[in-house]
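Many introductory courses stop at the sequence. We go one step further.
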Amino acid sequence: MARYWIRNRGRVQGPFSEERIQGLLRRGRFSRHFHVSEDRKNWYPAGDFPELFAEAGGPEPDDEDGHFRSGGSPFDDDEDDDYDDPPERSRRKTQRASKPQATRRRTSVPDDDDDDIRDEHDDDDEDWEGDDTDGVLTGLVDWIESNVKVLAVVLLLVLGVLSWFAFMKEDFTQDTADLKTLQGYHSQIVRAHQTGAAADQWIPMMERILTELAPLVERLDENASAMDHVKQKLLFVARDDIPRMLKELPVNKQDAAQRVMQQLELVDNMIQQQTRFSEAGSLTAPQLIPPRAPQPNPPPAGQTPLGEAPPGATPPAEAPGTNNSGTNSTGASSPGTNSPGTGNPASSIPGTGRP
């Protein structure tokens, strides 16, 4: 037996049998204004299914004042349809109910049809309640917009915690292995220098070490940053200090070798303290400042420093015929100066100022 779905104003009920739909038609809850489908996909006007109107004599006429003009539903409670219908339609219902055939048709419908229809109507109402989720989503969006500042602060806190776990709690296994590798190269180079390795031994060792350090330098160069001083210092040692050390030790220069040792000790301390950041002063070797010469204390106010003439004073006049440049601090004449009693007209008596 065929089953049909009926649709009116977007609401779908069913499936119903032909007898059930004819029962709805007799009670005024179905008309040709409805749409009918046999598979719930393709919908057609109810008038295209004459078998549904067989007992009623075909599709109902298009009555301008009919009950279905307002889009009624088979689940509407219309027990008082007689009061809502126009007088002519009420009379037709009265005449139809008075006929024996109409009575037999009405009694042929099971008594529990109304209960089944009401139950299905309740199920449909529950399905339609699912549309309330749109209101819930709208309310959620409004709440987010009104609390956007609070949500931004919470998001920053979450990102800060994640960053702390990502950077501060990072594993130092790889850094420790790189540190051990660089310490091994440093010890190997110092030992070769102390044993007096010749040039034919030093050059192959230098080329081998630089070749082995190339992958380490490349990896550290990709991962080092200003916020990770451990990798940064390891990069500087492997890329700059060890190659300079290999060039300076043959000429007995120890600057690069000492710097390598100092930087590796700093890295070792940071790894032991489980930190990747240290102050800038602790990452560089202290610079030696040469001592300054002692400065004399300034003289008291109003006094002239020793050996200087007071401001505005004139130098003392020289005695005629004397040569100050020729006398020393003891008053004796220096070689090449005139002495008294020599008969030289340019000579003078010491201490008199007279010739």
